[in-house]
Every structure is written in structure tokens, then in C-alpha cells.
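Our preliminary data section would be incomplete without showing what the modeling component actually yields. Below, a chain of 240 amino acids is followed by its predicted structure, encoded as C-alpha cells that our downstream tools consume directly.
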Amino acid sequence: MKLKTALLILLFSQNLFAVKFANQFVEFELPPAWTCTLEGAEWVCQSANKTKKRDAIIVLAAKLRGEQDSLDQYLAYLKKEKAYKSIQGKPVKSQKKYSKTSSINAHAWVDSLHLESELPGFYTRYLATVKKDIAVLVTYSINKNKYQTYLNDFENMVKTLRVFRKSGMGLNAASANSNLFKNTNIPSHISQGTVFPGMSPQGAEDGFATKKPEDDSLIYLIILLVGLIGFVIWKKKRNG
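Predicted structure:
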């Protein structure tokens, strides 16, 4: 009986934290405590925890299918390194880790992982596909120093990823002659601080400003004061 109760509690807890995101063309399970919003033409998903917003981000978009939208063309594009300038104007060249075709829930996707293809100091995984008259790209980017921390959550996201095209359903999609990968760039106002607060204007190695030593001192002082107040209250109650 105790074992059954424990299993029920475990299943309930997993369902409680597993939140499914669905828009007009894809669905997947979000990492715990994440939310998604529509930012112009792109959907942007991030942690609701302000201190974790700088760690990772999901960006996804769709477009009407054009002549340049096929798995072969996506694979050829993602096999190339990407070059661009950072916010600070420094040249950045991505490092391709892999590019391949994968089957996810019985549907073919082009799957590729790059380092520093979207943000300096971040890994970005690309998942691109076509479905009837639309093309879809889902990306997630993780700070390279936090990659292992978030890897399981994002692997679960990929395992639950489904693409669909419902007839008669409105679609927030770009035109057929647009570029799918450019449509799914991280919006500039986000990469400059809205989602990633504290980004270093000098360009620290991981893309963010270094925390000042006095910040830690202030935190420790607050913890010490809270503990002292709690001790005084406890002692008064005991003696009273």
C-alpha cells in the first residue's frame, strides 16, 4: 500500500511540473517553471526564474513553405559554420558539433548542434522540418557553462516534440520567400538584456558581466541578519 501511494505521489509530482506548450504548428513539454510568449514573429520560451533567464532560451518560428525549404537544403545550411559580429562588434565564428537527420515521433527533422552560432558562449541546437505547406524551426540555446545542467530538460523537450498543420487553423507564419533561419534569430532586444539580464558590454567570456565580490558579501550579510533575528525570536519564546 505504501509503495502504491509513493508511486502515485511521484506520478502526480511529475505531471505537476511537466507543462506542455502548443501553438499553431508544434507542441512539446517545457522545462519546469518555463513560459512562452509571442515576440513579433517568433515564439520565445524562457525560465520564469529571473536568475535563470540568462542560462537558456528556446526560440521557434514557422513560415509558408517555399522552394528553398527542404530537409536536404536545411542539412547543407547547418553543415556550414556561421559567422557574425557580437553585440560588442567582435567577429564570432561558430563551431559545428554535428548535423544530421533524425526521426522524432515518426517525423523527419534536421538536427544540428553548434557552439556560438547565435550567442557568444552558448550552444544552440537546431531542429528544422517541413509539414505540408509550412516550414518549422525550433532552436534552444544554453550557456556553455550550464550545458549539462539543462541537458536532460531539453532532451525531454525534443522527445516530446511534435509538428502538425491543422487545416482551417490560422497561422502566425512568415512569407514563403523568407529565410527560415533568419526568422528564428534571437530577437535583438532580447539578446541585449531583456531575457539575459546583466550582459557585459565589454563581452565577458560567457557573455555576461562578472558578479562583483561585494554582491556576495551583501548576500551573506542578509543571511546572517535573518539568522540572528530568528535566533533572538526563538530565545524570547523559549524564555517567555
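The chain has a mean pLDDT of 79. The helical segments are 2-17, 71-78, 147-159, 180-183, 188-194, 213-239. Preliminary results of this kind motivate Aim 1 of the renewal.
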